[in-house]
Amino acid sequence: MNKQCLEIDDLDAAAIERILANAIAWKQKPASLPKVLEGRGAALLFEKPSARTRTSTEMAVYTLGGHPVYIRPEEVGLDTRETVEDVARTLAGYTALIAGRTFSHRTLERMADAVAIPVINLLSDAAHPCQALADVLTLREQWGSIEGRRLAFIGDGNNVAASIAYAAALTGMEFSIASPPGFELPEPVVERVRNLGGTIDTFIEPGDAADGADVLYSDVFTSMGQEAERAKRVESFRAYQVDLALMTTAKPNALFMHCLPAHRGEEVTSEVIDGPQSIIWPQAANRMDSVRALMVELLEGS
Ligand code: CP
Ligand code: NVA
After folding, report:
1. For residue 44, which ligand has an atom nearest its CA?
2. Separation between Cα atoms, residue 85 and residue 296, nearest integer Å
């Protein structure tokens, strides 16, 4: 059985705790990084564009002593040139892990089922676990302890929302979300959060979710692959912009997070994202530190 991280709850609370502690330790003392990928490769397959995820994952592999191999889908032809499973088995012959950004979450599940090496989700239609790991790392650094804090997600019940909801449950944070009707977090996701022991409150009004929150979290209204729905989404999400007024509904000194890329003037105002409560740049930088610690966790256990 391979160790995988297709969604963040593939890790238990203890594994997340180890990953966060290691990420912080190795950030402070890079010389102590275990070179678990020395002389080995990591296959990084991207069906969608990326700035943060590609760069942070390549640098993570490099700093662990390994060689990242960036692969575009047109080169390998998933299910056209050969099956997803045969692509995965081929890559496993040369590399120590496979990480993929895919349209369909199922593609990653098929890869993970076909190989014995770790498979990491770098964003699918359902999940963005590496983002959620960086997010909890960032909050841990801000507050020391994140247990009992409240995170409010404002907007689409999408891949990023699902993963941070699970991450909140696994780290003892309360989670609330406000989404317009028709764009809510799917009911099975809400149930899964509760089954993990998490506290989750779902709302329609942004102010209800933001009320008393320690951090407001925003993402784009139109995710990659949904471009045809953009006009409809912009209309449906008009009231879901995080602005200074919404920030005042949260606790005083509440933080603002965004996974990026951001559209200023759409899901968030410039005043908020570029203002003193925003922690988007440490959050983005932590993508490298957290995925590196995740790789060590998966490779050492496999
Ligand atoms: N947050 C994030 O995943 O950014 P990229 O799409 O640029 O990788
Ligand atoms: N929800 C967004 C996140 C981008 C990092 C998307 O899937 O496009």
Report:
1. 1
2. 24
